[in-house]
Amino acid sequence: MSSLTTSIPARSWVLVTGASGFLASHVCLQFLKRGFKVRGTVRDPTQSSWLLEGRFKPYADIGAIELVSVPHLGADGAYDEAIKGVAAIVHTAYVTNIVPDPNDVITPMVAGVRSIMNAAIRESSVKVAVFTSSAVSTSPLAPGIDNGTIGRDSWNDAVLEAAWAPPPYGISHAMANYPASKLAAEKEVWKFVENNDLHFNVNVVSPAGLTGEPLNKKHIEGPANWVVHAYRGNKTAMDPFQASFYGDVKDVALVHVAAVLDPEVKGARLQSWGHSTHWNEVLSVLRRLRPLKKFVDDYPDPHHLKVSVDQTEAVALLRKWTDEPHKNGWTSLEDSIFWNISNPYLED
């Protein structure tokens, strides 16, 4: 891994937006471990100071990681200062609010892409920009139907129509806004690529659900931490999403890092969904890992999502760029769940 040619210079700066997030914090750590420097954007550097402590402290002590405030990701010029001198961008920031009005979710997400792309166009040091999209940008991933085969041109356009259905805005809009915002933001990325003669390469990484080691307590309290819902028996959160795909957060972070560093990856749309699974499989793993703890009963009619997705390119990047000598693909669901629940932040 250390001898591989990289598309950005050694020890150069990488801008990671939304750096305090579950995925982004692992992206930061993996770049730091490889000798790169990280400038992380956060809403409030004081609340995100943990990114300068703990396992990040050795890097903070030598000035290899710094935090900058970007309170509003979609504001004009939001990234103009943060982007100065960076060789690469990893744009993971997204609107976390679950609200009915699409103007409060989709609009700022698209504006955020425009803001950082315009900043990158003006900054000659930028060589690569990687954007985090989502599996739900490609397909509704609906249970009980055949979701088809996911290809380069697969888009979940129906969710945009649902999100922008006329008001009054209600729960159906709130449920559609997150996937619609990811879809709209990714389409805006490729629109920029098509309409501009960019001096930098652009790739997109599309994860599904994430499991694995949290680096901060807030990472296990978010609405998207599905395994913790199962651990706590939160059926309200579990019932609507009985089947999904899960990738280990370190794996997905590594795909982002590889999408920056690998000079052979250009204009890629990297589907990085991990393993197809069902709650009963997750519960079975939890029972093995915590045999004395009582968990909710299995679901009576387990099923996997019917969808075909090619993750060959993402898996090849994992194998190429890993620093684990025997790693041959996605981390197993059991290992990932172990790290998800074996931490100082999770209480029974």
UniProtKB/TrEMBL annotation:
Superkingdom assignment: Eukaryota
InterPro entries assigned: Epimerase_deHydtase, NAD(P)-bd_dom_sf, NAD(P)_dehydrat-like
Keywords: Oxidoreductase
Molecular function as annotated in GO: oxidoreductase activity, acting on the CH-OH group of donors, NAD or NADP as acceptor
Domain NAD-dependent epimerase/dehydratase: start-end pairs: 14-201
Keyword Amino-acid biosynthesis among record annotations: no
Family membership noted in the UniProt record: Belongs to the NAD(P)-dependent epimerase/dehydratase family. Dihydroflavonol-4-reductase subfamily.
PANTHER family according to UniProt: ALDEHYDE REDUCTASE II (AFU_ORTHOLOGUE AFUA_1G11360), NAD DEPENDENT EPIMERASE/DEHYDRATASE
Protein name: Aldehyde reductase 2
Organism (species): Chaetomium fimeti
